[in-house]
Amino acid sequence: MMNLIQKSLVRHMTCAIPFITACICAARPAIAVGDAAAGTVEERKREFLGRLVDDWAAAGYPIQWKHDEWKFDEIEPNWSGALAAMYLKRKPDEVAKADAFFSAMPLDEKIDPDMRVCEVIHSYYLLRDDPALSSTARRRLLDIIRFRPAPRRINPSIWEFGATENHAFMGHVWCLLAAQLDRDKSTVADMSRHIALFIIEHIKKGWLEYNSPCYVEKEIGCLVMVAEWAEDPRLRQIAELGLDILFAEHAALNLEGMLCGPACRVYQPAHDGILPDELNHNSRRDARCAGSYPCMYMLFGEGKPHNYGVLGASLLATSRYVPPKAVTALATAGAERGCYEFKARRPGRFHHLLRKKPGQTVPPPEVFSSRVYAWVTPDFVLGSFQEVEGRFGAARALPLTSVLRISGNTRRAVYTDLVPPDREVSASAAVDCAQYKNVVIGRGTVGEAYLAKQEFDEVVEQQSWIFARANGAFFAYRVVGSACTWMGARGASVLGDFIKFENPQAPFVLEVARASDYAGDFARFRADVMNNLLKPEENAVSYESCSQADAGPSAERFTL
Prior knowledge:
- The protein is α+β, with helices and mostly antiparallel strands.
- It has 2 domains: about 35-330, Glycosyltransferase, CATH 1.50.10; about 340-560, no CATH class.
- The protein has helices at about 35-60, 75-90, 90-105, 115-125, 135-145, 165-180, 185-205, 215-230, 235-255, 295-300, 310-315, 325-330, 355, 425, 520-530; strands at about 340-345, 370-375, 380-385, 400-405, 415, 430-435, 440-445, 450, 460, 465-470, 475-480, 485-490, 500, 505-515, 535, 540-545, 560.
- The protein has an 8-stranded antiparallel beta sheet with strand order 1-2-3-4-5-8-13-12, with no helix packed on it. Strands 6-7-14-11-10-9 form a 6-stranded antiparallel beta sheet, covered by helices on one side.
- A hairpin with a 2-residue loop joins strand 10 and strand 11 (about 475-480).
- The longest helix has 24 residues, at about 235-255.
């Protein structure tokens, strides 16, 4: 492995010793959450539902789109608009339109039928005693719930899904809530036990799909359905705790600036003109409009109030769930963020052991084979994953090696290296990297970096460096000893640019500074970086930075 870090008279780090051992966070003042918070949440829920009805009405109250690929449009806007209209009952004609939708609700078995059935299950449980729902609509909802037997994917391990994580959970909930309707006590008992273990394991260890707002929104929806409709009171409590923990994690990641970004799941642009200001339910172009972000808006007043998502937000809006005061305080504490180092352990290359050793009170220690290091400022977060056992980087995790996120827009991001897309290859892939505060130095594995250059206010290429500025942050990125090529966007579902290295294992340097450190002078930052000593050697790279970050012109020099 390349020895990335060399000694300096001022500061030094050694590759052989992991230097990330604790979590040091800046103190944040507590925020008082008044007793009226629950009422405010309910007001935002109703506002959100009203927007869904308005969007559905603007499209002409459609039941089904004419084109074949309706997955990206119909599942959410039509169903959620009808659900919101029936729930709010603002106008008699809107209620009639909603009943007409549920009476003729379409089902395409080729398009995520478990998600469609979960939408219907929640609708039926919520509205079955509503006199405004006709007998025809009730029969249609039951027909969809029972159009085929619910899946029973109960594997020996919670972590062996037999599907993706969100689809496994939707299948479990479908099976449980359909069995309750059928009075199948044996299946109800089996699925109640399994779902309780499923949620508890995820409370302990987290959601593998957390960084996709689209996928985690489905998991939010499943937790809402269990918390609202499970007959077992203990299971309802477990599901509500699962929501508490999920939103606490969401709030913490949002506070750290590490949530979402360009590696999350993205679908193609929407059709038919509904919500024309958005492209899809999990778009990199406006991720805060979609997926789990509307949930954050309803609960905490963060983000935008509209939605083009799947399952979770609409179910949350029609639920009784209100987050605990402590979670609300965490979610609304972003304004107090200062400059600090963040250090933590995370599951790394050995996360697969979660599947081999399920049900343990304490996860095997070897699972936590990665160390997270991040330098957090009000204007940007620069973070790295680092493996123990002398290796740096982590596979199949976000960030994959190191990532820069600039505040105000999750699309303003730099991924210094991307692991191979093939799962077998990426399972053991690692990237050499080391970080101290605002500087990262490393070596790639596949020779590609992600940098959405059109998202920045200015991009300058100068003396083999790529410089950019945006929203209070400057950064400099360089691939050492190798030419690189801008690859451009890879189709409509990927907004951004990829940089391809001619030498896949070329070293790279990424340095970031707050614009305020340079009194907003981007040219002076570029001049400082180009004056730094960058010395490639046979088995090492030295980078001596005269960074002014957070200390002004008298900052100490240090060498990575």
